[in-house]
Design brief:
The structure is a homodimer of 340-residue chains. Helices cover 50% and strands 15% of the residues of chain A. Chain A has 340 residues and is an alpha/beta fold. The radius of gyration of chain A is 21 Å and the shape is globular.
């Protein structure tokens, strides 16, 4: 049975959504849960839940990483052998084989740095990447990197392609995933120096390489995996989220300030707008995997509620069940052999 | 009176929207219009319009640049002394002082390359930039570059900041515009190598420098000018447009396939959704100026209709009236002096 560590100190409203979501996941998906964090805070929430027959235990971690932890200070806390923060303690459980995956809705940077220093990288991987799942017109797209690596080399992008392709196939269930290189034009030859230098690596690879994709092809669902450097990916993610929020806010505002007819109409289409919100809601997709580290780590939005945590555990459990980590290791290994 | 050249061969449905929009602009804004393109195509459309008392003339240009014109071929056509395509002929009218600004809804790349080769750059400007106006939660934001320069140096970004600031102030009417550097994090120190190297230039400048901005601050309306390299800017623009389209398409689909109640509601909120469409419609913003070339050039969406062309002429005329070109020249000149 998949054993999933949930960072109880992760979400903005910790520990309630984190603990409640973990309990929901234990019941619905039969996952074995390890809650890591301040036991004095976790226990009352856990005791308030019906946990009959569920496998849930607490591992005490008295400290936590926050948005204030960054730069050198963060690196020190992420590396410290005797670190007592919930991320380090939780990730060590995965490292030591006591659990199979780690899920947190905490500070993304802290999660990435802690995972990188404590788990290390898959052999042959130069730069691990954070890979959120974008909603698209036809389903979803794995986009990587979106923040771990603001400056990349062509080889990094190529490895992102391999990791993302395996993840899309194994975890998202996409057969022979189409992999695109995010660029400022669809035609071959368009791109910055990085994209131009990465293109031959993709063309010579065994990946199902689609070619360049613009933002509109990514959101339009033309590819299953979209590869980009962490700077561009981050700007793309944040802009997309902001545009979605701008539109839904404006619709709400117009309906609220509208005529009585508009208001009645608004009431009638409310369930439809709810569907849109669900479509765009990151909590529906669970959390973003960090691909390339030597272990399964998932980082969710700080504003995750219990449902988002539950979904993150569902995805993490599925990733364990299909053994995506070993598949990524083999694929990277094979790519290194073919490059020799 | 401002004399505006309109490329009659620009839009996807040329020459009808282009000619009709130009006529509308001549009437509404009192602009003097030069229609450039194939006279045999333009004349029938123009004759079908009421042009009494309007100053509109045709300058014949038998050829046109299309999406097929790119790379070396495009450069040759853009440079040719005896070029007979509508963009080259139209831009030459500006160059020779026979007109004050050029507006086209044609191929963006062709417009940029033709403007660059025929007008040259403002003295001291290293790289001109295309600067569309993004809709934001609080109004609009000038974003540059979005495609002319996929790879930039820190000095290029700094000059984009100067050009964008002058444009926002003079043409958009923003007092002391706030200028942000698009980055993967708001905090100083976040960014790729390019952003990090550009930051000191902005901090030492006379610009109203806001600091780093993420996609959400740009769309959220925190700054009036957002500076980025053409690769990132292009991905940002295309993703934002695609997300907006995805949402409005999905709303339409849900209402169409919904229950009778949802359908009735959809009918009642239709005007409200129209407002959203208008908010996001690039045609409302006219066209994107190309800043840094030695002349006023505006490039609109290929799918521009007559209203979009009219709005583009309105913006171009305003840019002429406030003499933004001389203001940009002075600002660049001053920045070079202070750097000495």
């Amino acid at each position: 049975m998949a054993r999933i560590v949930v960072d109880a100190m992760g979400s903005d409203n910790y520990p309630v959504p984190d603990v409640e979501g973990a309990v929901l996941a234990a019941r619905e998906f039969g996952a074995e849960i390890v809650l890591v964090g301040d036991e004095a805070l976790i226990k009352p929430v856990l005791d308030s839940q019906n946990t009959d027959g569920l496998k849930i235990r607490i591992v005490h971690a008295p400290e936590m990483l926050t948005m204030e932890d960054k730069g050198e200070n963060l690196v020190l806390k992420a590396r410290a052998k005797d670190a007592k923060n919930s991320m380090a303690v939780g990730i060590d459980l995965v490292k030591n084989g006591e659990a199979d995956a780690f899920v947190s809705a905490g500070n993304t940077g802290a999660g990435m740095v802690t995972a990188l220093f404590r788990l290390g990288r898959i052999r042959g991987v130069d730069r691990p990447a954070l890979a959120p799942i974008f909603p698209t017109a036809t389903g979803t797209c794995v986009v990587l990197d979106i923040g771990a690596n603001p400056d990349c080399k062509p080889e990094n992008l190529y490895q992102f392609g391999i990791l993302g392709s395996i993840y899309a196939e194994k975890v998202r269930g996409v057969k022979n995933p189409k992999v695109g290189l995010v660029s400022n034009g669809e035609e071959e030859g368009k791109g910055n120096e990085l994209v131009k230098a990465a293109t031959p690596l993709f063309k010579a690879s065994k990946l199902n390489y689609f070619g360049n994709v613009e933002g509109k092809e990514v959101i339009g669902g033309k590819v299953d995996v979209a590869v980009t450097d962490g700077f561009t990916g981050n700007v793309m993610l944040k802009s997309s989220e902001a545009v979605a929020k701008l539109i839904t806010d404006k619709i709400r505002e117009i309906i609220k300030n509208g005529s009585i007819i508009t208001k009645v109409g608004g009431l009638l289409v409310k369930p439809a707008l709810g569907e849109i919100k669900k479509l765009l809601d990151p909590s529906e997709q669970g959390a973003a995997p960090m691909l390339g580290v030597n272990g399964l780590v998932f980082i969710g939005h700080g504003r995750s509620d219990a449902i988002a945590i539950k979904n993150a555990v569902r995805v993490a459990k599925h990733a364990v069940d299909v053994n995506v980590l070993d598949a990524m290791k083999s694929a990277i290994e094979a790519s290194l052999r073919s490059a020799e």
